What does this fold into?
Amino acid sequence: MDLISNLAMGFGVASSLANLMFCLIGVLLGTLIGVLPGIGATATIAMLLPITFQLEPVSSLIMLAGIYYGAQYGGSTTAILINMPGESSSAVTAIDGYQMARKGRAGTALATAALGSFFAGSVATFLVAIFAPPLTTIALKFGAAEYFSLMVMGLVMSVALAHGSVLKALAMVVLGLLLGMVGTDVYTGAPRFTMGMNQFADGLNFVAVAVGVFGIAEILRNLEDEHDRQVMTRNITRLFPNRDEFRQMIGPVLRGTGIGSVLGILPGGGAILASFASYTIEKKVSKNPEEFGKGALAGVAGPESANNAGAQTSFIPLLTLGIPANPVMALMIGAMIIQGIVPGPNVVSEQPQLFWGIIASMWIGNLMLVVLNLPLIGLWVKLLTVPYYVLFPIIMAMCSIGVYSVNSNPYDLFAVAFFGLLGYVLSKLRCEPAPLLLGFVLGPLLEENLRRAMILSRGDPTTFVTRPISATLLLLSLAILVLVFLPQIRKRRDEVFTESDA
Amino acid sequence: MTSITRRILLGSALALGLAGAAAAEFPERQITLVIPFAAGGSTDVVGRIVADRMSQELGQQIVVQNVGGAGGSLGAQQVANAEPDGYTILMGTVATHALNPLILKQKPYDPVADFAPVSLLVLVPNVLAVHPDVPAQTVQELIDLAKAEPLAYASSGNGTPLHLSGELFKAMADVEIDHIPYKGSGPALTDVLGNQVPIIFDNLPSASGHISSGKLRALGVTTAERAPSFPDVPAIAETLPGYETYSWNALFAPAGTPPEVIEALAAAAQATMADPAVVERMGEFSATVVASTPAELGEHVTAEMAKWEPVVRDANVSMD
It folds into this structure.
């Protein structure tokens, strides 16, 4: 029973007084920066890297990991309360979470997010412990063709994110795809849509776009009518979910955990799909899909569990292969190298204390987070009573600092301003920002992998259907497409028939 | 001894004295070290280790600022335009000071005229590695294989030192291998570990863990000599005489920085790189410590530009 003795060793390492303290510091910091809009885990970890020089390698990685998943918890708080997602995963939470808050159910939404995240985090941590090595081999089976098909599936799903007109949702996805094209072409080095400014050579900053179209646009909208907001605080009757709501939560949380755990292992864009995928599925299986977008509990519970499960399992490629699944993981690799640990497949065997210590600390950290966050919900909800003239300038300042701190690029701030205005215009036109964001995130991945797959197959497009994983994903996309459009086609046909009858 | 030499000696003694006086005054406040890449990469790691130790040498804090973007050009441009007082310095690389200026059609800065060289800190070898399923065991066998069937190699991106190492290899070995660019080393490594792409040119530090675990087979290092951290891996030059590429990290200040300030920075950098703890760290990282003088770095930049110019031209790599 290697696993049990390894886990015991891990808990031994993680529960030393010093490591418990660093874990607590990490999750506290993570929650805090997650709650502050715009400041993400990437910027925080980058700023804290020099401090980790002086720490033990295990302690420093435990703390950095704590910041990362702590931020996932905290990020949902701002998404729910002020419609301000700090990263792609909480963009989905904002859709229904913010609507719940507007109806006075902010406490319920926050508690759902925290409990769902805790459950998902615990399950995913055990998956990491048991299946890390075999799961890695699955991740390696994903080549360019498979990623392309996965992204196709993601884009097809994005249409389901819309709760209004499908046409407008498609338009937003396409706009997002176009915005994602800004920057240097990976294959030829040609700059695209940069307007001659090499500050845009690496594309638009995701945080700038997200904070703009969601947050700043929301602030502008709120400035129009102040009285709307009274509803949010007046109707709060209780902070915690009741028995019935708990029952509603179970299914979405379980499905979200499964989806998030699987997609989280794929380096290069798998994890960002998790919360979107979970939302789509919840909407499909729900008995009341019309509730989605108007404050559906399942629309918060599912995606939040999915993103937290994905956050944990994205450590698998890092710990077993030394491959970063996202920018935060790239920083963790930097932290390991600074400590003199060569990231790679040898970490598990050469540094078992480190490997198992981190895994055990993730579970402890998740427990700390839920204990920390549940009592804080009352405090966060009070934030809603802060008057606009105090709250808005603070949010704007925080966003600006956060966006600027990533790359010290002033053009990112111009982008925030521009996308704030664009988001406001879009909201006036009743176009939803979530499909736009998904298109923006997936577009570059779709293109990059399409072209890579084509180079590798030497121009043969059948590569997408002859590779089994890719073919399966494409078939799934087709099935989803049929499911999405069938009801509409049937409706139209019914209309046609009624007309001809008449 | 002629009077001329004596005068030169006197002059340099005087200059040294002046430099000493200026050095005592120079760092009056914190210094910003601009790293032109995102945090977590190899340049960032070298930069942070150096900044940490150099702060002690100078008695003032060196603050690391990551200004990533446009393959390092944004950060380099920022330092080129900074106040030439030594309080803003750059962690330059082969990309910012040789390749980008050669590749970019619109040059955002001049690597020679806009900078005052301080010290060439380290050389970092690159490595040619293959997935273990690839039948080629040596560089020569890989060349023969490439002549027999179509192959592809992964690199960290278009116009990066690794891409050009691959192009130089193709030119010298007279073979055709498709280039597959990625956004950084991490995703490129992933695809080679999964055998989606058979060959990779990578920085030795980022590939070393996979080489020692046997998940990748190193065929050759790109430096003229074998790397001390991997004595069993031959140099590509053993098969293709004259083949030599490597990445490097060097400190630059903006042009017009007073010479005594440059001297103070160079002295601190050299003392930093002489610290056995730093040397050991760099060794773990497969980086070789150089710790040159400002003049040597100036010559190095010129030599690198001369070396890469024909490779860039023949590979037909250019960006607007």
